Amino acid sequence: MIIEKFRPGKVKAMYGRFAEKGRMLPPGVNYINSWISESVTICYQVMESESPEKLQQWISRWNDLVEFEVVPVISSALAKEKVFSTGQ
Fold first, then answer.
1. CA 9, CA 5: separation in Å to the nearest integer?
2. Contact predicate 55/70, CB 8 Å
3. Cβ contact 23:31 at 8 Å
4. Which CATH number do you get for residue 52?
5. Which stretch of 21-25, 44-48, 79-83 has the lowest confidence by average pLDDT?
6. How many domains does the chain have?
7. H runs (alpha helix) in the chain
8. Is the pLDDT of residue 35 over 80?
9. Are 43 and 35 in contact (CB under 8 A)?
10. pTM attached to this predicted model
């Protein structure tokens, strides 16, 4: 899960770059879905990446306009399996 906080005064530039260049995802990084706060200041985005390095490569293309927080997540099914297999 990626939490993107749009840098103040940079939202139009961010959407302009997106319109011109798309997501600019490197191979091995896949966009799943995203939701934007009503104030258009934060994006909650689900991504898949084959490695943290690939994800950082993508982040480096946007971090002048957006502040990123990366929260590793797993599916609910995998969480359940993890809980029952480890006795948590």
1. 12
2. yes
3. yes
4. 3.30.70
5. 79-83
6. 1
7. 11-21, 52-60, 76-86
8. yes
9. yes
10. 0.86
